[in-house]
Amino acid sequence: MTTQRIIDNGAVETAQARMLPPRSARDARRVLMCLCDPTRLKIVRALQATELAAGDLAIVIERSRSATSHHLRILRDASAVRWRRQQNVIHYRLSDDVTAEVLDAVGSAFDLLAPGPGTDRAPVS
């Protein structure tokens, strides 16, 4: 705790109650690191729509197969995506755990940045 003088105890207590415990903070960091790269954000947004084969996903996000594979590995390590093998094709989808829920919610929030119908700018709040 700080040795500085608190001006508003109630406000400080309310704000402190919103802080994540250390383990949750580490999990939050891991999830947010997944989205700090535009390619991974594209992958999450594509997989929000449907399951995709790895090669098809590379086409959708306009990246090479090797670059797509690299980003998918990071998302797999963060438990954000699941995969299944069908013969020699690997299909990906968002996982069903809380990591994927957070990624899904954050990815959807970016829709607010998209231009509104008939405009070339995002809506201003």
The number of distinct β-strands equals 3
Query: Helix amount, in percent?
Result: 40-55%
Radius of gyration: 19 Å
Compressed to H and E, one letter per element, the order equals HHHEHHEEH
Number of helices: 6
Give the low-pLDDT segments.
none
- Our estimate of the beta-strand percent is 5-15%
What class do helices, strands and sheet pairing give?
mainly alpha
CATH superfamily of the domain at 23-109: Winged helix-like DNA-binding domain superfamily/Winged helix DNA-binding domain
3D shape: elongated
CATH topology of the domain at 23-109: Arc Repressor Mutant, subunit A
Q: Sheet with the most strands?
A: 3 strands, antiparallel
Q: Strand arrangement, largest sheet? A: 1-3-2
Assign the CATH architecture of the domain at 23-109. Orthogonal Bundle
Distance between the termini: 37 Å
CATH class membership of the domain at 23-109: Mainly Alpha
Mean pLDDT: 85
Write the SSE topology:
Layout: H1 9-17, H2 22-35, H3 38-49, E1 52-53, H4 54-61, H5 65-77, E2 81-86, E3 89-94, H6 98-109
Antiparallel strand pairs: 1-3, 2-3
Structure overview:
The protein is mainly alpha-helical and 125 residues long. It has a domain at 23-109: Winged helix-like DNA-binding domain superfamily/Winged helix DNA-binding domain (Arc Repressor Mutant, subunit A). It is built from six helices and three strands, in the order αααβααββα. It has helices at 9-17, 22-35, 38-49, 54-61, 65-77, 98-109, and strands at 52-53, 81-86, 89-94. It has a three-stranded antiparallel sheet. A hairpin with a 2-residue loop joins β2 (81-86) and β3. It is elongated, with a radius of gyration of 19 Å.
